[in-house]
Structure formats: C-alpha cells, structure tokens
Amino acid sequence: MLLAAAAVAFGGWYALFILPTQWLKVERITRPLGLNVTMLQLSDLHVEQLRIKPERIARLIRAEKPDYIMVTGDFTQKEAQLPMLRRYLEVLRGSGVPVFAVLGNHDYQLRKVGRLVKLLEQCGVRLLRNEHVPLDRFELIGIDDYGSGKSRIGPAFAGVSAELPRIVITHDPNVVLQLEERYDYLLAGHLHGKQVNIPFFFRLRPMGKLPAMGIYKGLHTNRYGTYYISKGLGQTKYNIRLFVRSEATVHRL
Fold first, then answer.
1. pLDDT per position in the chain (253 positions), as tens?
2. How crowded is residue 109: how many other Cβ atoms within 10 Å of its Cβ?
3. CA-CA distance, 124 to 111, in Å (whole number)?
4. What are the domain boundaries of the chain?
5. Is domain 2-252 given the CATH code 3.40.50 in the classification?
6. Per the confidence metrics, is the pTM higher than 0.85?
C-alpha cells in the first residue's frame, strides 16, 4: 500500500509539475495587418532547463512553414550550456528561415555575453540591439532588455519609416509602459505566464508594473499598439510548471 501511495503521489507530481514543461502548446494568433506574413515566436529557451528537444522544434518549423523566426530573449545564463544552445540554433539555421532575436535578462547574467553574441552570429541569427532593419513590407525593430537597463527606445526607432507597419521584438514586456512610439505589433516573453500559476504569484515574486496590473501573458492593446506576451519554452530557477504549458507561438499578420 505504501508503494502504491508513493506511485500515485509521484504520478500526480509528475502530471502537475513536469508534464507541462514537456507538453508543448502551439498558440496561434491572427492579426489583420495585411502583411501576409507568418512569424514563429520562440521565447525564453533557458536551454539549461529546457525539456523541449531540438527535434521537436525542427518538426514545428517544417509543419508551420514560417516566413520568419523571432526569438525573444533568454537563451541561457550559463556559458557551459552554449554547446547545448548551438544544437537548437543549428536547427533554426538548418530550416532556411530568417531568424531574428533580442537578448533577455538572463543572457546578460553571462560573465561574457560576447560569447553568446558570437555564437548567434555564427549560427546566422540576426541580433537586434536597439536597432531596426527594413524587411519585406514592414520594419522590424528590436529593443534590448528593459529589466537589464539596456533598452534604448530612441535609437531603436531612429529612422524608422512612418509609412510601413512596425513590428517590435523585445524580451521584457514592461517596456511597453515606457514606449511612446506607434507600433503595429510587439512580441515579448520574460514572464513565463507565471510558470507556477498560483494566485498572487507576482506579489511573491515581483517582476514589474505590468504583471502587477494582471498583464503577464497573451494579447493586449494600449494606445500605441498591440502586444503579445509568450509563456515561453523553458523554465527558470526550478524546472517545473504548474497549470502553464511550454509555448511556441505562430503569428499570422
């Protein structure tokens, strides 16, 4: 009976806390921007604790056939995990899809963030650090991590076309509270959809004004534009999720 009880307890713990880290949910968002563009957003890989294998990401890319892949920060905070990160980046490069990215707060905890930047460059990832790049039918703007004090909104938007749609990628969505530039769509991550979805989570672990307002996942709009907050692929601190599955997001714009 003790063994049976232990097995039931383990099964319950696994189903509640571990399975959501492995059970990838593909969210699908459609916004009528008229671009006829599909973007695959991957956020918060945290490869040191990522339970989604590179092969699963490869199958997702083949199935969705995105025009662009956007990685919204937090690759890893451990230099020892850069070889593991390379496995995921090689999958992205092998897809032949253009990949753009920004850095997150955990990336800036690396002792030598330059090693990560160099790896991204080697694997064909276009890193945007408070800058923009004109793409087919829209401007892509990358704002560096707000929580790390790296965001520079002015330089990021300097010279951006007033006529073309503006798509923004960033890590910490709290930056929208400081962003007073028009944008058509913004992609962010960082908040993991709470990761452990219990009441008052952001009182126990404050992560900025936005989640304190009850905004920590999904689609939202303010006076300057519409933004989406991904629940992310990986985990931080503890390799568990509670009532929140890992997420990749397909945006049809």
1. 665 554 444 345 445 556 778 989 999 999 999 999 999 999 999 999 999 999 999 999 999 999 999 999 999 999 999 999 999 999 999 999 999 999 999 999 999 999 999 999 999 999 999 999 999 899 999 999 999 999 999 999 999 999 999 999 999 999 999 999 999 999 999 999 999 988 888 888 899 999 999 999 999 999 999 999 999 999 998 899 999 999 999 999 9
2. 13
3. 23
4. 2-252
5. no
6. yes
